[in-house]
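Trying the structure run again after the queue cleared.
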Amino acid sequence: MSNIRPAGLYDLPGTYRVCLQTADAGADGSALFTNPDLLGHIYVGPYLVGAPDLAFVIADELGVAGYVLGAADTREFEQWQEREWWPVLREQYPATSGSSLDVELISHLHSPVTAPAAAVENHPAHLHIDLLPRVQGTGAGRAMMETLFTALRARGVRGVHLDVGEDNHNAISFYRYLGFVELARGADSIYLGMELS
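Done. Tokens:
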């Protein structure tokens, strides 16, 4: 039996694991990376530490099976990351050259991608969601999104956006089903947004 609950720092190992095991367009990306922590440092850790009131997990007897993480004000969150989150990681992982996925992630630590103005203008919040296969197709994804939307609405947030890899067709279909529309395009991703009012 799985349940959705607020995330805590004790969920960092489980959420990092989910991030890695869904990193290949929703499939297990464990074999793609040498360092299993880098993805989590970028897409999970800052939310559990810097925006814990908008972090939720779905957990069962096997542990964390998914998460939805958000920030109510994207620009403010990006500034917090620049002050508080990236500096220590930049020291731990010096910029390097090469063509591996690990090198790409380390490059992200040193030059993080910021959300385009077209995504943030009317959709100031953003989110990340990932679910392991054992809870996919159960309605958990929609329930988790609604949990986050409720928390954002309670803060008066008028819109939320996300970016998704353009090759992640299942996720794109799910977001469109929920009412997300395209706002902008990144290098290899699509920014989708939804009004919350």
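Helices lie at 12-21, 38-43, 45-50, 74-92, 101-110, 117-120, 140-154, 169-178. Worth checking whether this holds up in the mutant runs.
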